[in-house]
């Protein structure tokens, strides 16, 4: 007997082994786990830069912290997250909580060396966050369904839940800071992480890529997948350029607003409210993804989305001293990011092999981390950083145009081949040369031989 919370399509199935209810349970357990993960991620999001400044740390040193963070994500994070295909993806998601707690705890000590060391577990946690959670979902989904539509909606709903959590905690962080100081959001994040780790351990099933495969074999097969399918490489370059932009944006959006002295939003700038406004724009973008995905191919509409991102990030170039226009441009960029998140997950589910999914996804992160490290180590002025934002978003758009063309060409070739098979007829020069052989149930031909 099916027991549901209601008769609607969105009801939660409590006891039913049907594929539909299994997918509903999968969606809800994944959404709840991601809710607490996103809450922990974004509680301190608007105040990382500010708390460093409150400790008397200058911009050059803060950028050095981010260099260590990205270096950790590139080397240690890529290796640890790739191991999840063998050691288990649920276990790796729990490890995310452990590493992020270490990072948040480091802010209790206002010493440069300790804060620098704290960015190392943050980098490892980031690599797990960006790859393993999604790999776990796609593998679990494929255990129960091959329907890409249901996966599309789970990815969209995940983005919506994460954005809602982020908006809520961004507003909460504003009040926490006003009441208890800059350290309060980091303490609250630790609490969310403990809840997340407990929930995932109790409700998520374990899955692997190929747990009998050695880590070296997994790394080798991941390289072969990139070598053999240039569409994965194009997808990787596209995500690398765009996400490199997002990482630099995450560091520099606060000083970009602080340096603007005309058309003031408020003095002092309410960073928590500004962050919440950007996340609201991201929420609207994720809703737009659901509409776009019903009517257009993902590769097609993402071309325009990357154009919007470049346009939004170009505002500080033309109006560097105007807070309100810059904020509006940032909101347009966040709208594009809201579309990008579920769209990129859907594209990865289509192109990347499941057995080595986490490994390949971590390979695809390498170019973006190298780009970010290069930009941070160069210590560019903000005006140059603004140009780099637009340039990398434009490169992402070009890569998506090439991927769209490659996919359309591949589909056209497949359609022609399929049509040729359907229309195939044997070439007979003379109808008298046709030898008809009837096979009976004993395996003999009709003439008895």
Automatic annotation (TrEMBL):
Keywords: Membrane, Transmembrane, Transmembrane helix
One cellular-component annotation, GO: membrane
GO MF annotation, one: molybdate ion transmembrane transporter activity
Keyword Membrane: yes
Transmembrane stretches, start-end: 28-47, 67-84, 91-109, 115-138, 159-177, 183-204, 232-249, 269-293, 300-319, 363-380
Entry annotated with the keyword rRNA processing: no
Domain of life: Eukaryota
PANTHER family tied to this protein: MOLYBDATE-ANION TRANSPORTER (PTHR23516:SF23), SAM (S-ADENOSYL METHIONINE) TRANSPORTER (PTHR23516)
UniProt name for this protein: Uncharacterized protein
């Amino acid at each position: 007997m099916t027991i549901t919370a209601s008769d609607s399509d969105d009801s939660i199935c409590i006891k039913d082994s049907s594929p539909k209810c299994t997918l509903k349970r999968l969606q809800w357990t994944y959404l709840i786990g991601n809710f607490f993960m996103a809450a922990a991620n974004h509680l301190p999001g608007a105040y990382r830069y500010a708390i460093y400044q409150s400790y008397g740390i200058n911009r050059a040193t803060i950028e050095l912290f981010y260099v260590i963070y990205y270096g950790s994500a590139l080397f240690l994070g890529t290796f640890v997250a790739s191991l999840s295909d063998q050691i288990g993806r649920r276990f790796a998601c729990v490890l995310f909580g452990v590493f992020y707690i270490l990072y948040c705890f480091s802010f209790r000590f206002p010493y440069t060396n300790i804060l620098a060391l704290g960015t190392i577990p943050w980098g490892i946690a980031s690599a797990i966050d960006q790859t393993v959670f999604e790999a776990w979902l796609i593998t679990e989904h494929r255990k129960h369904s091959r329907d890409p539509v249901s996966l599309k909606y789970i990815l969209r709903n995940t983005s919506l839940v994460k954005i809602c959590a982020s908006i809520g905690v961004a507003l909460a962080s504003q009040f926490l800071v006003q009441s208890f100081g800059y350290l309060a959001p980091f303490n609250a994040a630790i609490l969310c992480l403990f809840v997340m780790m407990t929930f995932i351990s109790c409700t998520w099933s374990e899955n692997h890529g190929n747990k009998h495969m050695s880590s070296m074999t997994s790394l080798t097969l991941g390289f072969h997948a990139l070598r053999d399918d240039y569409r994965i490489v194009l997808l990787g370059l596209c995500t690398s350029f765009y996400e490199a932009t997002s990482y630099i944006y995450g560091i520099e959006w606060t000083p970009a607003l602080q340096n603007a002295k005309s058309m003031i939003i408020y003095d002092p700038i309410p960073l928590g409210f500004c962050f919440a406004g950007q996340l609201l724009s991201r929420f609207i973008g994720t809703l737009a993804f659901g509409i776009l995905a019903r009517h257009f191919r993902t590769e097609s509409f993402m071309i325009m989305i990357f154009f919007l991102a470049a346009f939004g990030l170009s505002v500080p170039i033309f109006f560097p001293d105007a807070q309100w226009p810059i904020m509006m441009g940032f909101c347009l960029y966040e709208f594009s990011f809201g579309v990008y998140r579920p769209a990129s997950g859907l594209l990865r589910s289509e192109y990347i092999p499941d057995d080595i999914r986490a490994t390949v996804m971590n390979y695809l992160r390498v170019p973006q981390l190298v780009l970010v490290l290069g930009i941070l180590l160069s210590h560019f002025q903000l005006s140059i950083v603004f140009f780099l934002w637009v340039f990398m978003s434009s490169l992402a758009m070009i890569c998506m145009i090439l991927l769209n063309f490659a996919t359309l060409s591949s589909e056209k070739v497949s359609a022609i081949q399929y049509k040729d098979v359907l229309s195939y007829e044997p070439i007979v020069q003379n109808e008298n040369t046709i030898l008809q052989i009837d096979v009976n149930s004993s395996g003999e031909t009709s003439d008895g031989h």
